[in-house]
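Batch manifest line 510
LIGAND: nicotinamide-adenine-dinucleotide
JOB: complex structure
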Amino acid sequence: MLNVPSQAFPAPGSQQRVASQGRSKVPLKQGRSLMDWIRLTKSGKDLTGLKGRLIEVTEEELKTHNKKDDCWICIRGLVYNVSPYMEYHPGGEDELMRAAGADGTDLFNEVHRWVNYESMLKECLVGRMAVKPAVPKGMLPKSQVTDTLPREGPSSPSYDWFQTESSVTIAIYTKQKTISLDSVIVDLQGDSLRAETFIKDHSYLIHIGLSHEVQENFSVRVIENVGKVDIVLQKRENISWKCLGEPLEKHDSFIPKKDTGLSYRRCQLISKEDVTHDTRLFCLMLPPSTHLQVPIGHHVYLKLSVTGAEIVKPYTPVSASLLSGFREPVSSPNKYIYFLIKIYPDGLFTPELDRLQIGDCVSVSSPEGDFKLSKLQEVEDLFLLAAGTGFTPMVNVLNYALTCMPSLRKVKLIFFNKTEDDIIWRCQLEKLAFKDKRFDTEFILSAPSPEWNGKQGHVSPALLSEFLQRSLENSRVFLCICGPTPFTDEGIRLLHDLNFSNDEIHGFTA
Ligand code: FAD
Ligand code: NAD
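JOB STATUS: finished
ARTIFACT:
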């Protein structure tokens, strides 16, 4: 809700400007861009009216600050005076006022829990709630943590540890059989171990200051049929440990994923390669002491500091190429993450990303997303509708379809772009179509040159009925669609008109 970064192009939630579509429709006045806000926060002006003092705020007091020119909001236990920010909020003043004088945590989580409001609003911090809102925090005793779960939620996991002369194994018992290697994210920083396991829509956190030193490299194993995760650490010294270590913040907590923040780790830029005139393939390397795999169809957030403020934008990892990357299953452990990213010269984030030198770092979040691979089970015809960089989630879906879906008869990519020069990996797509007869691609241009003799136009009933032909009359079909929000919205509407059901469609959005 607060300060929502752009989701689409034309960026309806752009941190910078007016949105034309989607949720955020409020034109920002001249001089009220994100950069203007950053400048104001750095000007030394007293934005809280408290001259830098931090106070404890009672619920009664919070309620009294409920007017536009005196508006306090509590997010995750901290109270902010958002009045100075009103005119800069891309979602508009009314959206902020929905939480005026109240706890806005749920509203905030609902829209974009990943927005880095701590950094954006740090000069607006009034203080802490005297009575905390009902979000589980810190090291709660187990009984209290489980009490916060909805009755229908998964049952609470547990952990144990054991050692040999040279290793320490932390065993997490998830009590779920749907666990895989991409359900676990482990970061080891010095002696601090943080392991987050995603179980349905909940997150189980192990967060420990280890009692002894371990080596940087560790391994993660998942025993799917019993829902057990093993993190195997290598001791630096072969001595017997009396205890695993000290619990750190939120250790052993099990809470809905939407109530957790995103965790970030710094990744090094390894290479940057031109793909089209404005799109580049970035390769980032995860730290050796991180285990992180992005599930197919999910995205991460990249975070950079832009003139002192932390800016966060979502990006979807891809394989290194359509051809070589397709030899290995996407889920094999990989230290490298690739992104196809379009650089907008007047964008807020991408020019900054483009300025990074090889060896520089960018922070990468834990993954997010609601795409479920199980939807592809027994699918025979898969249609991928992509526009511009909306192609990115299709890459790994396509990889998976061609390598792991025995039922598959046909995959068709219908790829919308403005001009021929904008088509990402055109040559690779054509080679792949030549190599694998199940795959076929169609390019549709909205602003072609006079020489273009292929299809042209925008997403339309005529184009869709022409291209969405089943291989057999009753083929089990699935469609994925991704691109600028108006494209995705219009595409989904047209697919419904063509009698495809919601169960057969996945629209990629934030
Ligand atoms: P912004 O500051 O957001 O501006 C973008 C451009 O939009 C500007 O340069 C401007 O020309 C134009 N613009 C914005 N608003 C208007 C307006 N009102 N009128 C006219 N023009 C306007 N992108 C990728 O390249 N690769 C990915 O893999 C990828 N994955 C994504 C995954 C998800 C889940 C989502 C939601 C988005 C993804 N994006 C991806 C888009 C990405 O998050 C950013 O939105 C994009 O990189 C632009 O960021 P920016 O800060 O540089 O530009
Ligand atoms: P673009 O401006 O180059 O447009 C590509 C094509 O999209 C156009 O040729 C046209 O066919 C179609 N299009 C554009 N505007 C349209 C409209 N108003 N109505 C119907 N069709 C329209 O695209 P781009 O700059 O590459 O932007 C790609 C978009 O995809 C971005 O908004 C990005 O946020 C989004 N994206 C989303 C995800 C995700 O949600 N998972 C992932 C990647 C990219």
